[in-house]
Amino acid sequence: MSHTIRTLGPGDAALVEAMNDLFAEVFAEPETYTAKRPSRGYLEGLLGGEGFVAIVALDEGGSVVGGLAAYELRKFEQERSELYLYDLGVAEAHRRRGIATALIAEAVRVAAERGAWVVYVQADLDSPAAIALYGSLGTREEVLHFDIPVRRASQAP
Question: Which of 10, 122, 129, 143 is the most exposed place for a label (fewest CB within 10 A)?
Fold first, then answer.
């Protein structure tokens, strides 16, 4: 079965919604990806802006079977940017067919087109498949990741 890789743009909000459905299934996180869906207007704003990249893999019937969401981070120290691969997932029935690698290759192409100097991604330590994939494509760096909570004034103690 073949697939088509497509970088999304304005008018593709429905495909982003389908990508969110896929991510909910792949990551087993329906609360994150489908419980509080953004409006079509919000998604269209992301797709029409400069900082967000969405790429999907479509099967022969046009269904989303893989997806990649990334953010372009424009740098201040030089006129360049970095592309951060935020989410990447492929439906279980479509794995081991080169879809993830093709999605990343398209992200690298988009990054080059935008003048980025690097594409980077993080992987959870308990995800050997992701670590193997990313390790085959780039250089591994050992870093620590910290989540710092943001509290709104209404949530102050």
Answer: 143
Q: What is the CATH number of the domain that holds 17?
A: 3.40.630.30
> Could you give the C-alpha distances from 128 to 21, 38, 72, 123, 143, in angstroms and in order?
23, 31, 26, 9, 17
The one-character DSSP state at 67 is E
Q: How many domains does the chain have?
A: 1
DSSP state of 84: E
d(CA 35, CA 23): 12
Whole-angstrom distance, CA of residue 89 vs CA of residue 38 = 20
Specify the DSSP class assigned to residue 140.
-
Strand order in the sheet with 116-121: 4-7, 52-58, 64-74, 81-90, 116-121
Q: What is the pLDDT of residues 27-53, one digit of tens each?
A: 999 999 999 999 999 999 999 999 999
